[in-house]
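Protein: Penicillin acylase family protein
Species: Streptomyces aureoversilis
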Amino acid sequence: MRALAGLGLAVLTCAAVLPGEAAAADAPARAERAKGGGLSAVVRYTEYGVPHIVAKDYANLGFGTGWAQAADQACVLAEGFVTLRGERSARFGPDAKPDGSLSSATTNLSSDLFFRGLNEAKTVDRILGSPAPAGPTQQAKELMRGWAAGYNAWLAQNRITDPACRGADWVAPVTTLDVARRGYAITILGGQGMAADGIAGAAQPGAAPRTAKAADPAEAARKAFGEQRKNAGMGSNAVAFAGSTAANGRGLLLGNPHYPWQGGRRFWQSQQTIPGELNVSGGSLLGMPVVEIGFNERIAWSHTVATGVPTNLYELKTVPGDAHAYLVDGKPERMTERTVTVPVRGKDGSTSRVTRSQWWTRYGPVVTSIDDLPLPWADGKAYALTDPNAESLRFTDASLALAKSRSVRGVQDALRRTQGLPWVNTIAADSGGHSLYTQAQVLPRVTDDLAGRCSTALGRQTFPAAGLAVLDGSRGDCALGRDADAVQPGIFGPSAMPALVDAPYAENSNDSPWLPNADRPLTGYPRIFGDVSTARSLRTRGAIEDVAAMAKRGGLTVADLERQQFANRAPAGDLAAADAAKACAALPGGRATGSDGKPVDVSAACGVLARWDRTVRTDSKGAVLFDRFWRRLVRSAPQAELWRVPFSPASPVTTPNTLNTASPAVGRALADAVAELRGAGIALDAPLGEHQFVERNGKRIPIAGGADALGIWNMIESAPWDSARGGYSEVRHGSSYIQAVGFDGGPCPAARTLLTYGQSSDPTSPHHADQTRLFSAGRMVTARFCEKDILSSPQLRVVRVSER
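Structure follows.
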């Protein structure tokens, strides 16, 4: 930093204060800025707006990170803090829908009730004030404090250009507590945050809320803890290769998380450096002061959303005549009432207040639904949600410990020490040639024995199907207990976590821990972690086929990882396109009957399917037709009907297979797809990129990749098909912060990165779509990690940022 100052490169930033925003700072925020004592950092920007932040300690590093995140994402961050303060109904109306980044609440009112309830109970305040490991370490607290000060300093010194919040009175300074609340919300996304509607809006005796549909409980649980995560944009792929497969004998890692392209759960890229203490590069979730997925000179890691269910339910027996008391070992216990009041803006601009009661038990809050699983508070029963992550702020410390790790063993030690990952697996590789897969996440300590002894009738359906335990809350012996090596009661300790070390490859694509390597399956873990010997998703099957072939071939380099990322092979096409084309050609008169009962001439589709190259590149002809056909088919045909050869645990990568062309669903799906495309004036052999694209500043950018249903590594889930707008005209979630990392034994890792949607949500920013265009072209960015590479960037811009 002194050298940079001496060179005269540092620039002190200054700008006009945002209108009205300095006055909007509350007393805690003003005190915090004064207490900051003149925090500062140096931010060196290189190509594509990637900041390399250098500071002397954790508070100053947090300051530089908060400042730089605000510069790119002020509006998205500010709206998130409105959510956390429980002010969405007052600002945006009660009935609108939040972006889903901080909870699964379906309305602003439900979101406000949920977060105000947490705030008024001072849940995060209590954890933040607890000594580690119950609370965060001092380093984590300093990062949060600095982040808040940096965000506030940017707001005070700059004018917002993003039309999403330019001049908005809800853009306001924040405190350390606000930053901690954001990290807490991310931590409980798979638990209390997933049940926000059921906690906030319905916890009164009576029928289940309208948001919960009467459904088969096992299927509803599978949807809630499987499909719901995918729909919320929580997925990923990652693979670590051991040195035995690499050209230079060192580890390699390819991380490909699938996250939303809009809203508050975007990644943001940076390098964070405290000389002699920390040096890490990677992607951070917005509002987080640390890198969550990244690399340093010795280690690279990524995360994938795990199948472990981070919560469980207790079924309560309420006291006859008193639905607000329940029995434990025959003795009544009163529920605790939390009365929450939310200000609400009416359609006429007037303000009113809505008050609701939330009810809490020894097990957690009473809930009346989780997604489509109804949990009625009636007939002498109620349900309470246990979420061990609701007692944790350790995610920041876990990420910081990973950033400091120097080897796969160091990664394992970091996870064992912090026990702070809420809903993800970890895949890692190091410069010594070691590889790792582990599902080291915070899970309620529901052993198979406990579930066998204590599951209620509902739990006997949901636990085998989805890993969601519903235990008998009337029995004290059904408590979760404690593992000796666990940092908090009621969770599994590190020795219970599935792990695979030093396999030639270790891969995960959001399936259970059973098959990170086809030759080295993992078994023996409790059901709550995931299932065993069940059919894998097409994405897992395709990924294992690809990475196993790469490992067998050997001699791998970072360039091979980049080729895998953009291969865009469609495993569903390899399995079914040829058979679909043959079935099409065999149709009498070339006609099939659609779901509306009308015949459709599909003869032209037969050749298109046969000639399709089985990829989802932007120039692939036939990919649009197969995509529309396949989505319809898998929605309408049960798996047992879809394939002629059923799943076999002995051949999990290659079964099920062979399309069952005798199923009437095949002809219907083909007829509907052809009719749809013709009705929209879209050629059956139209290139994919003409109809899968995003618009940025009025220009179309074609997007490669494909849906989870197709099994694509480079997964892209777009907004629903809209023929009038030309097809898939916006990406909802998919490939996000991508990194391909290798090592050569020196201090500079060989890394290629890509942030698919760019650093900034602001359409006026030069970094709003620059990396999106790279993604469209199938290119990545050569990472600048070492000083010589950063300082030699032709686009180097150095800024000294400070509170004054």
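Remarks: The radius of gyration is 26 Å.
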